Amino acid sequence: MAPAPVLWYPGEVDAALFVPCYVDQFYPRVGLAAAEVLERHGVRVTFPEDQTCCGQPMANAGSLEAARPLAEKFLRVFREHRYVVCPSGSCTSMVRNHYGPLLGDRAGELHGKVFELCEFLHDVVQARPRGRFAARVGLHQSCHGLRELRLGTGSERILPGRDKVRELLSGIEELELVQLQRPDECCGFGGTFAIDEEAVSCRMGRDRIADHEHAGADVITAGDMSCLMHLQGLIRRDRKPLRVLHVAELLAEAEART
Amino acid sequence: MSAHAERAALFLVDQPRSAWHDQAVWWVRQKRDRAASALPEWEELRDQASRIKAHALSRLADYLEEFERNATRWGARVHWARDAEEHNRIVHGILAERGVTRLVKSKSMLTEECHLNPYLIARGIEVIDTDLGERIVQLAKESPSHIVMPAIHKKKEEIGDLFHDKLGTPAGLSDPAKLTEAARAHLREKFLAAQAGLTGVNFAIAETGGVVVCTNEGNADLGASLPSLHVACMGVEKIVPRAKDLGVFLRLLARSATGQSVTAYTSHFHGPKPGGELHIVIVDHGRSKLLAREEFRRSLQCIRCGACMNTCPVYRRSGGHSYGVTVPGPIGSVLAPSVDPRKHAGLPFASSLCGSCTDVCPVKIDLHHQLLAWRSELSREGFAPRRKRLAAKIGALVLGSTWLYRLSGWLARRVVPRLPRALVYSRLNAWGRGRELPEMPRDSFRAQWRRRGQP
Questions:
Q1: ipTM
Q2: Counting CB atoms within 10 angstroms of each CB, which of A45, B43, B87, B290 has the fewest?
């Protein structure tokens, strides 16, 4: 394959960080790690402070009227930025794929601006992270990153496989990605689903954890902290020795050890 | 809790059994993957199938009339039914006029949807389902839990007990081959005694007026060939324009459904057999309502392969009966609310919206987006629980204001860790029933980001 053309030069890219509400409040280290990784690859990062939430929780629950003001707010906060980068496939997909019914034509103002972190690193920055992370890692494919943003080829599709997250991790030494029996089954978080269908949600999560355990993973990583919040909740309840790390945290940790 | 969530929770109580169900159904998904991977043109076939169906639906009335003309030319009689009630009345009328009291049926999800069996039985007609899975659930007085594998929820030992009880097989027999043999002998008698055969329809070809029925057991063929009267029931959406379109759909159907390259029997019926009668009953039953709705129209492209059920992580762990409808799983949860939005308001929420169904669907129905669309439709029409609407309003209020949002986050982080565990993990905390809450950090990201900016 011919080398990809260089579209940018270090220090030339500015990106506004969009930090999902629950990450801002409960997982600050994920936001910090995302900024760290971006900066390491020459991106100037800003954080517009007026941001809150993309509105997905309300839209997911069926309430478009409740989600609309949040979409409006998102547009107000981010419309002036060339790039908006978010360490969540799910929130990115909300903005990219589901703002139409909320904002109408104005949703187009965000077209081509909003990227999931790995997608941005892979497609725009064309980063090749280098570093060291000595662990057996299970890569959990967060559904919306996989099937709504197409960060990888889902197991349902009969197409040549590719996977942007896996490619980003491929340059990390001593990191061994374990082979799962079900490579991309949902963890069962699903936003309001985790509450509405609590029993099924927990069963799905425990099955997912068992798959990672059998594969010999020490660490479960994913592009969405929401999946990991759910899985970690189960891991801690069941007192299992597994760690969960957002892929931004994993990259930041690995790259600090070059 | 929705009715689905309640039934799903019950299904999950017997953990080894629900794990077995999950694995049994997942195994079919894996067979589908292997069969589909053998065709490098798989994704193109899906595209083509989707386009053919979309086209057929875009001029459905024309194609239905063309089908009627051609089928009539072959000597079939075509009947039109507005809804389930009219469908049942028509079928009963055909049978009653000819004094039929013994009917054999091959698999038809449409007649399940219309509850034809109890309707006919109440009017003195013996109805025997001849698909093995359907016969099993019929003997057990249950409903199918899957549209392709109606008895997938039953273990072979349970079927052995059932057959011992109903068919007199030796007690403790659970060898699938022997049980199938017993069912076969039992069904042979029913076939020979039947005065009429009823089948479903997989495809109705407008151009030729023929109907196509796909089975693996040959039971539709026996049912349609032995008695002189054949009744075929189909939903309006079964139309394909041309005979050559079958080349696309037949390749997708069996591979998606069971991982076979083709169904064992693919039978084409063009008119009645010599001296016999063929009646084709075409049913709407809510389908034209869906057709009128742009956001839900594509659900009518469904060819009932069941692949969305096999791939659905929720279906596999909650069982088909938890949905409380004839067609369960993702496609069922899209179809059901259009028939009865109040009763089925919970179904579009019985999904994590993982999107696997959309990608597995051979006719590319955007199932998870339709589930999402139903959520807002049901909420707008007032069918969502008040609790849910209130939660969305409060959420929007808090998240809509930057300072209220920051304050709420601060309170959660500072207060929750200090509360007694019994209070935090009370009955009201559905999250905490099976999981721990996140460990609360002292400061938010934005607070730490600010500090980072300072020298």
A1: 0.95
A2: B43
